[in-house]
Amino acid sequence: MFFKKLLNFLGKDLAMDLGTANTLLYTAKDGIVLNEPSVVALDARTSKVLAVGTEAKEFLGRTPEKIRAIRPLKDGVIADFEVTKIMMSYFIKKVIKGLQLVKPKMVICVPTGITQVEMRAVIESAQQAGAREVKLIEEPMAAAIGANLPIEKPVGNMVVDIGGGTTEVAVISLSAVAYSESVRIAGDEINESIQRYLKDEYKVLIGENLAEQIKIELGNSYYVGDEQRTMRITGKNLMNGAPQLIELTEQEVAQCIKDPVNMIVESVIRALEKTSPQLVADVAQNGILLAGGGALLRGLDRLIREEANINVVVDDDPLTTVVRGTGIAMENEKVYKQVFIN
Asked: What is the CATH number of the domain that holds 74?
């Protein structure tokens, strides 16, 4: 006990939401201490790190040949081991300033569909980035803890966590995942749908940052025509390479993101079909929790509510639900020991 207290005094333990779109870090003392895009900019010739996080995201789609802007995670898992290690190390050092006598212990959330190989990649990346010990927790479980759901009780709670790379759907009971599904359709796929629409309909190319901005401004998964917001954007004409100004409407964006949104809704319906009747009855009584950045998409809660015939609740701060839950599990390791998957 004394040794553990000494470790806590000398070293700062970290909870991490290592996301496809954003990485968040949490400490017991200060709560959420970092929230930055999961992007690294490198010199293409020397592999020297030029920028990480918020600054590096501005490089996307704007880099000359000698610079590469990389998103090292794809579909919720590590796609580039070396760059992920660089990014994690940078974020850890940014949070833990000065001399750290003891390496931090880390709790990292991962998708439910993660393979053993992918799990090993996350653990090794964290260890090489400076962690002394690494525990893993599934994202929907972390979201449930972050939203203060009674996960330890024999009652079914459904969580839908929509991130950048994956949508995690899980039914949780007795501190375990009774049913889960990880669908590799989420915020990134919605952005890509907007890019494809502009390319096909207007013969105009835009970057992923602008596509994300359009999603935030005009995205609506339950458009009923009662208002018509518009947004003026400039893209590159595919035919002559010249800049082209377009005025996009909310109705257009609602139509072009329909397919990925429907696939997210279908994953929720499929989860209900494959869950036991008693747990479904619990979910019907308790409602469905929406978390992750995708939970902010206009009308998504209403669409799921209508299709599933179950009340849907969006967490108060869906962008941080997962990292808050990961942090709570880290701070109360004995209480939540059953939720760690390694």
From this structure: 3.30.420.40
